[in-house]
């Protein structure tokens, strides 16, 4: 693995590097990846409090990192399309019967999963705004899946 060393001060003028070019830190791709980073951090917090199904949450973190790489231009459409199909299969397997509006907060884990879901929805909106259709579709499916995880109480 290559060693990473931050370039101290390289962003002090409001620009950062993304796929071999300098872009403003206000670029929608940068904002989107920052929010995905936040979601990943929240999943990490949840994992630290969760014993059961940790592998599923760890996989979500890996997929979010992969999505960030796609947004930055490092991954191909084919890989993200495969992740979308996998999520769709997971969603179709679930059999959750919801009869009323769900209000979260009775327990820490489902409340955090719902927070993650809400932040994913914001990311989806930004992906549409940035015209990154495939990322927006993936985030839409991921939001559905996060909702399913939160109401299934598997954690």
Give your account of this protein's structure:
Helix 1 runs antiparallel to helix 2, helix 3 runs parallel beside helix 5 and helix 4 runs antiparallel to helix 5. A hairpin with a 2-residue loop joins strand 1 and strand 2. The mean pLDDT is 87. The protein has 5 helices and 2 strands; from the N terminus they run ββααααα. With 155 residues, it is mainly alpha-helical. The radius of gyration is 17 Å and the shape is globular. It has a single domain, classed as Cobalamin adenosyltransferase-like (Hypothetical Protein Ta1238, Chain: A). It has a two-stranded antiparallel sheet.
Summarize the structure.
This protein has 155 residues and is mainly α.
Helix/strand class: mainly alpha
Low-confidence stretches: none
Number of strands: 2
CATH architecture: Up-down Bundle
Largest sheet descriptor: 2 strands, antiparallel
| End-to-end C-alpha gap | 33 Å
Q: Remind me, CATH topology?
A: Hypothetical Protein Ta1238, Chain: A
User: What is the CATH domain class?
Assistant: Mainly Alpha
């Amino acid at each position: 693995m290559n060693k990473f060393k931050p370039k101290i001060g390289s962003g002090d003028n409001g620009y950062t590097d993304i796929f071999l070019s300098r872009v403003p830190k206000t670029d929608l791709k940068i904002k989107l990846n920052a929010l995905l980073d936040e979601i990943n951090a929240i999943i990490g917090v949840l994992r630290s409090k969760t014993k059961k199904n940790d592998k599923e949450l760890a996989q979500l973190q890996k997929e979010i990192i992969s999505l960030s790489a796609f947004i930055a231009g490092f991954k191909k459409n084919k890989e993200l399309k495969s992740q979308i199909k996998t999520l769709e299969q997971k969603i179709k397997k679930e059999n959750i019967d919801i009869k009323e509006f769900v209000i979260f907060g009775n327990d820490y884990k489902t409340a955090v999963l719902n927070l993650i879901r809400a932040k994913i929805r914001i990311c989806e909106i930004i992906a549409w705004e940035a015209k990154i259709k495939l990322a927006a579709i993936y985030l839409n499916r991921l939001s559905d899946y996060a909702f399913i995880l939160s109401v299934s109480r598997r954690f």
